[in-house]
Amino acid sequence: MTHKLQLERPLRLIQITLAVLWIYQGFVPKILFQSSAEIAIWQAIGLELHLAKIAVALSGLIEIGFGCTFLIWQKAAFTHQLNILGLSGLLLLIMCTDPLQLTTAFNPVVMNIAMIAISMIAIQLLNLSKQQA
Where does the sequence pass through the membrane (predicted)? Predict the structure, then answer.
């Protein structure tokens, strides 16, 4: 097996993992069950309840769409760079709007840092893959 093929398997796993995580995060707590914590974030920004619920659903659709990009553009470092930027921004947003969320189990710090690290590894693997070509 060539080095390039050895790099493709972990890259594929990373792409699928990030896609599943983003799609799950967009669908389950934002569309299917409309998490009260998600609604509270939008209300903290200044939206009334009915608009906050719409914003939660729309952000869920955006997250689902972003998750799909990992399946569509499997060799694009740009999606991982956006992932790192977006997750960092979302973490800052939570720090400003609801810092108590950072003290709970499986909180945004844990999830976001893990997903950022996975994207950083993907970028390194993509760079190695380009060097092998």
Answer: 12-32, 52-72, 84-103, 109-128
Report the C-alpha gap between 76 and 96 in whole angstroms. 31
Q: What confidence tier does 121 reach under pLDDT thresholds 50, 70, 90?
A: very high
Spatial CA neighbour of 80 closest among 115, 106, 45: 115
Q: How many residues in total does the chain contain? A: 133
Counting residues of the chain whose pLDDT is more than 90, the rounded percentage is 75
Count Cβ atoms below 10 Å from residue 33 Cβ, excluding itself. 10
Q: Contact 66/103 with Cβ under 8 angstroms?
A: no
Alpha-carbon span 73 to 95, nearest angstrom = 31
H or E stretch including 33?
none
**Residue showing tokens 């499997």:** 74
What was the pLDDT predicted at 106? 82
Q: Is this model's pTM higher than 0.85 or not?
A: yes
Distance, CA of 130 to CA of 58 (rounded, Å): 36
Residue 15 backbone class (left: φ over 0; alpha: ψ -120 to 50; beta: rest): alpha
